[in-house]
Every structure is written in structure tokens, then in C-alpha cells.
């Protein structure tokens, strides 16, 4: 399959696409923000601990330049002595080193959060493709990086020149000052220049951070087809879901039809609605074991007649039962009286013996407002 062109990727990335990118370690990164964080924190730490670092460095230099004759007589002590000097030099600088290490995590945390992505450590041999390497080298992103580098050099160079020009008279006076004053003045000048450079880099970072976020989302843009495929994957294929519903409906109807022969009565409308009821010992109220409309209602009636189940035509009650009752559940309390009247007629009919008295007759079933006629469609069938 050919690679999708950038022109087709017009849709913003979904949350799933962004989450998968984060899991792969693909998050926006700003080099300018990292430079500002590390350099700015280091300068602030140096300003805060500069006096202690200077005094410790002076003592260390005095000790390092002192002459110890025992080292000449015991050359094996030279290496431990050098290690001890190195350790004593690192101790005053330890706050600066720790501050810089902590600052390294500020930019990633601010841009995309700190996360370990094991997939990013996997070898990607596609990066060894010379063609793709040349394409990246001469891409618009590389051109933007070149422009940022030129702007960075111009800003830092301009800020540095401005600081030196402002302190030119102080620099000329340093040779006449004492060593300590000259060192203090030089350190203060360097820190001032660094702070000015941090301000310039902060201006670049304020431009670069939104740009990196925009570039990151642009790379993850999706086509309309990819969004549709993802929606199908997340929500399920509509055709499969429709088939599942159809199979479930067929299984429900099969179970329902299997229960019709054991029903006590089927209430009809007489052709649009059919509701099969069962009532027996231990049951609190009659239960709906089957119900249907149109063709399904006729099938329920035919099956009931085949198994000699009583069929009673009571249109208002049939409509009310179909609308207000649920399959495999008891009928509503407000229909108890009407259903009891139908069941009483069925039980009388079962007990009747031809030639011994008149045949029981079904009185008109009154269900009150619950038996109001249903709205109908243009063809005369009940609206559903």
C-alpha cells in the first residue's frame, strides 16, 4: 500500500493516536526550552552559591599548589592524592551539578510529561535509509532548525557584545585592581552576560514551544478513512453489531416460541398483536412468555391453536399488554383485573362439558384508559 500523502491528512489526531505516540516516545520536544532550563537554573544556582564556591575553589587551589616532599619519596601516593584533590574539587561544585541534572527534566516535563517509552529503545533500521536521511536533511524542518540556529547565534552574539561593550571600562580597570577584586568583577560580568543570554534564549523558547506542539500534531494528523477505521475498531463494526443483534433477536424469538405451547392463554388483537400468558402455582402474577406483532403475532396464534392453547380476542387488553409488559416478567398491577377476567373465562372453558349447561361466554374486557386505540399508519397498521 502506498504511503498516504500529507495532503490527505487533514484531520486532527484522535486521543488514541496521541496516546499511542506517547507510548512510543513521540512527544513534542523543544531544544530552546531545554537550553533555557539548564542554563537558567545553573546561573541562578551559581549566583546563590558563588561565594562558597569561590572560597572553596581558592582553598582547593592553594592546597593543590602546595609542595609535599613526601610525594616525591613515595610515588605510589600520587594517584590517591590526585583522586582526593579531584573529590575535594567536586564537592563545592556538587550543588551546581545536581541543579543542572534536575533542570534537564524541566523541559520534557513541561512539554510532554516524563515517561519511559521502551518502544523508543527498539532499533529502527528505517533510520539507516540514506534516501530518508537526505529527505530529512533538506526538509522544511531542517530549514527551520537552521534558521533557529542562526537566530540563536545572532542573539547570543549580540547580547554578549552588548554586555562587553557596557562593561568595557570595568575591563580596562581590572589590571590595576587586586587579584580578588579582578576575579570577583570577572565572575560578576560573566554571570550578568549569562543571565542576559538566558533572557534571549527564553524569547526563542517562547516562540519554539508552540511551534513544536504544532509540528507534533501536524505529523500525527489523520485521514478521514483512518478516523473511520479507528471508530470501527473502538466501537465495533456496525455490520457485525447489526448481525449480533439479529442473531440475538432470532434466539429470543425461538425461546419465546418454545414457551407458547406451555402458555395458559394467548390474548389477540386479533391480527396485529398477540401476547401469551402463563399463570401457575407459586407465581405471584401472570407472566408474559411471548408477544409479537403482525407476522409474529399470527405465528404465535397458529402455534397456540396447534397445541390447543386458548386464544382470546380482546383488542384493548392485547394492546395494553404488548405496550406495558416485558417478556418473561409479570404483567403490570393495573392490568391484574382484566387479565384475571380472561383467565377466569379460560378456566371455565376448560371445565365446561358439552351438554352440561350453556357454554361460557367471554364478557367484554374493560382496561380503562390503558386500552385506548393506538395511532395507525397510512396503511391502517398500528404505528410503532
Tell me what you see in this structure.
This is Flagellar biosynthetic protein FlhB. The chain crosses the membrane at residues 89-111, 150-169, 189-211. InterPro entries: FlhB (IPR006136), T3SS_substrate_exporter (IPR006135), T3SS_substrate_exporter_C (IPR029025). There is one protein chain. The protein has 384 residues and is mostly helical. It folds into 2 domains: 27-219, no CATH class; 257-353, secretion proteins EscU (name from scop), CATH 3.40.1690. Helices cover 61% and strands 5% of the residues. The chain contains 14 helices and 4 strands. The protein has helices at 15-23, 31-65, 69-73, 78-103, 106-111, 130-137, 140-166, 168-173, 179-219, 224-235, 238-259, 295-306, 315-324, 336-351, and strands at residues 265-268, 273-278, 287-293, 310-313. The protein has a 4-stranded mixed beta sheet with strand order 3-2-1-4, with helices on both faces. A hairpin with an 8-residue loop joins strand 2 and strand 3. Helix 2 runs antiparallel to helix 4 and helix 2 (31-65) packs antiparallel against helix 9. It is rod-shaped, with a radius of gyration of 44 Å.
Summarize the SSE layout with pairings.
Blueprint: H1 15-23, H2 31-65, H3 69-73, H4 78-103, H5 106-111, H6 130-137, H7 140-166, H8 168-173, H9 179-219, H10 224-235, H11 238-259, E1 265-268, E2 273-278, E3 287-293, H12 295-306, E4 310-313, H13 315-324, H14 336-351
Parallel strand pairs: 1-4
Antiparallel strand pairs: 1-2, 2-3
Helix pairs in contact: 2-4, 2-9, 7-9
Organism: Luteimonas composti
Subcellular location: Cell membrane
InterPro entries: FlhB (IPR006136), T3SS_substrate_exporter (IPR006135), T3SS_substrate_exporter_C (IPR029025)
Amino acid at each position: 500500500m502506498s504511503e498516504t500523502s500529507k495532503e490527505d491528512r487533514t484531520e486532527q489526531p484522535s486521543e488514541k493516536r496521541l496516546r499511542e505516540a506517547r507510548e512510543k516516545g513521540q512527544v513534542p520536544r523543544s531544544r530552546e526550552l531545554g537550553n533555557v532550563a539548564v542554563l537558567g537554573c545553573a546561573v541562578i544556582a551559581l549566583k546563590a552559591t558563588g561565594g562558597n564556591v569561590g572560597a572553596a575553589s581558592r582553598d582547593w587551589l592553594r592546597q593543590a599548589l602546595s609542595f609535599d616532599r613526601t610525594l616525591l619519596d613515595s610515588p605510589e601516593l600520587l594517584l590517591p592524592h590526585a583522586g582526593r584533590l579531584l573529590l575535594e574539587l567536586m564537592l563545592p561544585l556538587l550543588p551546581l551539578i545536581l541543579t543542572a541534572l534536575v533542570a534537564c527534566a524541566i523541559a520534557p516535563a513541561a512539554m510532554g510529561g516524563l515517561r519511559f517509552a521502551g518502544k523508543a529503545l527498539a532499533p529502527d533500521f528505517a533510520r539507516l535509509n540514506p534516501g530518508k536521511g537526505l529527505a530529512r536533511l533538506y526538509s522544511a524542518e531542517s530549514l527551520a532548525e537552521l534558521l533557529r540556529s542562526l537566530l540563536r547565534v545572532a542573539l547570543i552574539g549580540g547580547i554578549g557584545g552588548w554586555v562587553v561593550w557596557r562593561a568595557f571600562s570595568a575591563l580596562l580597570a581590572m589590571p590595576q585592581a587586586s587579584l580578588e577584586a579582578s576575579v570577583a568583577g570577572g565572575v560578576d560580568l560573566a554571570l550578568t552576560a549569562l543571565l542576559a543570554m538566558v533572557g534571549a534564549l527564553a524569547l526563542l523558547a517562547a516562540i519554539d514551544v508552540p511551534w513544536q506542539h504544532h509540528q507534533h500534531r501536524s505529523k500525527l494528523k489523520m485521514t478521514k478513512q483512518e478516523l473511520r477505521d479507528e471508530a470501527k475498531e473502538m466501537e465495533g463494526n456496525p455490520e457485525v453489531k447489526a448481525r449480533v443483534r439479529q442473531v440475538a433477536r432470532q434466539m429470543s424469538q425461538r425461546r419465546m416460541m418454545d414457551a407458547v405451547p406451555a402458555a395458559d392463554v394467548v390474548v389477540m388483537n386479533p391480527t396485529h398483536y398477540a401476547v401469551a400468558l402463563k399463570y401457575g402455582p407459586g407465581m405471584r402474577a401472570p407472566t408474559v412468555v411471548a408477544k409479537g406483532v403482525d407476522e409474529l403475532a399470527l405465528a404465535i396464534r397458529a402455534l397456540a391453536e396447534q397445541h390447543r392453547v386458548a386464544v382470546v380476542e380482546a383488542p384493548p387488553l392485547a394492546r395494553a399488554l404488548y405496550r406495558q409488559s416485558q417478556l418473561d416478567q409479570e404483567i403490570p398491577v393495573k392490568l391484574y383485573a382484566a387479565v384475571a377476567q380472561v383467565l377466569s373465562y379460560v378456566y371455565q372453558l376448560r371445565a365446561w362439558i358439552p351438554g352440561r349447561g350453556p357454554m361460557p361466554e367471554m364478557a367484554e374486557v374493560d382496561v380503562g384508559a390503558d386500552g385506548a386505540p393506538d395511532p395507525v399508519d397510512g396503511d391502517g397498521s398500528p404505528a410503532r
